[in-house]
Amino acid sequence: MGKGDSSLPRLPDPKATAATPDAPAPLPQPKPRKRRRRLAGIFVLVVCILLGGTVVGGAWLYYRLSGNVQTISVETAPSPEANEPVNILLMGSDSRTGKGNKGYGLDAGRSGERSDTTILLHISADRQNATAVSIPRDTWVRMPACASDGVAGTYDKFNTAFQEGGASCTTEVVTELTGVPIHHVAVVDFGGFKNVIDALGGVEVCLNQPIQDPDSQLDLPAGTTLVDGERALAFVRARKTLGDGSDIGRIKRQQAFLSSAIRKATDTGLLLNPVKLFQVLDTATQSLTVDESLNSLGQMRTLVDSLRAIDPANITFVTMPFTYRADNANVDVDTVQADKIWQSIINDTPWPPPVSRGPDGKKVVVAPEEITVRIVDASGSQAGEKASRQLRALGFSISEITQANKKRGETEVSYGSGLQDSARTVAYITGAPMTEKDDIWTTTLTVGSDWSSVKSDVVVGNSKKAADETSTQATTAAEPICAG
Question: Where are the alpha helices (DSSP H) in 306-367?
Answer without folding.
Answer: 335-347
